[in-house]
Amino acid sequence: MIEVSGLGKRYGSLEAVKGVSFEIDKGEIVGLLGPNGAGKTTIMKILTCYMFPTYGDANLNGYNIFDNPLDVKKSVGYLPENAPLYPDLTVDEYLNFMADARGLKGNSKRERIELVIDECSLEDVIYRSIGNLSKGYRQRAGLAQAIIHNPEILILDEPTTGLDPNQIIEIRELIKKLGEEKTVILSTHILQEVEATCGRVLILNEGKIVARGTTEEIGREMKGEVMLDLTLKGKNLSEARVELESLEVVRKIMNSKKLEEEKMNFHLSLDPEKESEEAIFDWAVKKGYKILAMIPERFSLEDIFIKLTREGVKNVN
User: Fold this and answer.
1) Which CATH class for the 225-297 domain?
2) What b/e readout covers 221-254, taking b as 16+ CB neighbours within 10 angstroms?
3) pTM metric for this prediction
4) Staple 104 to which of 109, 136, 142, 196, CB 3.0 to 4.6 Å?
């Protein structure tokens, strides 16, 4: 659905985006993360044909950004960080104007307007001037215009800016619902929003992708191992330590502690290339041990973000 190959953008001597490549399939919601100046907004502007790259290429919904920019724009719904609003218009007038701009006509036009009003919870302010709306409602109006033409791809730059906690939850649920059928790229500084909404993340720093994948995949790659906290119940637990150490998936037993007469806790370092947790489960069942707890130790998205963008790591693009 989205294919980006070696994309770069220079502003004079400044290279804001440096050879970025990635692919996003239909039905995926992907978070674009990075500190200010990392290149997130520049990438979004290129993908919406707001600007062209200095080098590289991109295809969206089968259309090339150089050869078919108008078709790309028809396929994309875009909500920039500062929503494109007209303060003198009412919400209804604004959505009618945006529907006209998108070429909607007749009954289909009114149906789409009514649908986005409902989806973005704008019913209470539909006849109020946009200039008199709260920031949260203005953001909703901006999201409504992005989806009014039912695009295949949504590109959302900070979509929950200015919303209260209840509104943020509503917009997150709407984005997840839209992501069932559409491709969504979501840029945000709110890490919890990515964890709640996105299936994958692309982390940018200084114009390059420094990590990609799920939080678990990135954390595993950064650590080079998987840590597991395992609590067993059974007899002959002293033998369990020896048997665990002999398992191929166990790199090392970091420590072990007896909890009760027939309960013991192990902190394990596992091989990230193997299905380690499944192998340990099968071993415990075979030996007659009860697993009381099996808790993977993972980096939080905040840990990952700080390490990749503040401390600096080798580029893995």
Assistant:
1) alpha beta
2) bbeebbbbebbbbbeebeebeeebeebebbbeee
3) 0.74
4) 109
Region for 236 from its dihedrals, namely left if φ exceeds 0, alpha if ψ lies in -120 to 50, beta otherwise: left
Q: Which CATH superfamily hosts domain 2-213? A: P-loop containing nucleotide triphosphate hydrolases (3.40.50.300)
User: Which sequence spans correspond to the domains of the chain?
Assistant: 2-213, 225-297
Which residues touch 275 (CB under 8 Å, ≥6 apart)?
Answer: 249
Give residue-wise pLDDT tens across range 188-246. 877 778 888 898 999 999 999 988 988 777 766 666 667 889 999 988 787 888 889 88
Residue 212 pairs in a beta bridge with 202
C-alpha distances in Å from residue 93, one per residue of 98, 104, 119, 128: 9, 14, 17, 10
Distance of CA 30 to the CA centre of its chain: 4
Looking up tokens 């939850």 gives 169
Could you tell me if 183 and 213 are in contact, meaning their C-beta atoms sit under 8 angstroms apart? no
DSSP characters over the chain: -EEEEEEEEEETTEEEEEEEEEEE-TT-EEEEE--TTSSHHHHHHHHTTSS--SEEEEEETTEETTT-HHHHHHHEEEE-SS----TTSBHHHHHHHHHHHTT--HHHHHHHHHHHHHHTT-GGGTTSBGGGS-HHHHHHHHHHHHHTT--SEEEEESTTTT--HHHHHHHHHHHHHHTTTSEEEEE-S-HHHHHHH-SEEEEEETTEEEEEE-HHHHHHHHHTSEEEEEEEESS-HHHHHHHHHHSTTEEEEEEEEEEETTEEEEEEEE-TTS-HHHHHHHHHHHHT-EEEEEEEE---HHHHHHIIIII------
